[in-house]
Amino acid sequence: MAGAQVGNQDPELLRRIAQTADVNRLGAHRKGYLALKGDSRLDLYENGCTLLQGGEVRVVLYSSTRVWQKVTRVHRNGVHTHTNHEYRLIDIRGAELKLTESLSNPDEWGPELVESIAVRQAQGSLEALRAGQRVEFGAWSLSAVELGTGKKTIALQDLRAFRVHQGQVVVEAGDDIRITQGIDAIPNFLVFRFLVKQLLPELPESAGKVFGRRLLVRGLNTFFAIVAVIAFGIACLTSWPVQKTELCDKLSTLQAARSELTEQLKDLRNASENYRGDNQDGVRADSEKLGKYTGSGYHWLKDSDLDDATVSIRAVCQASPF
Question: Quick check: pTM over 0.70?
Answer without folding.
Answer: no
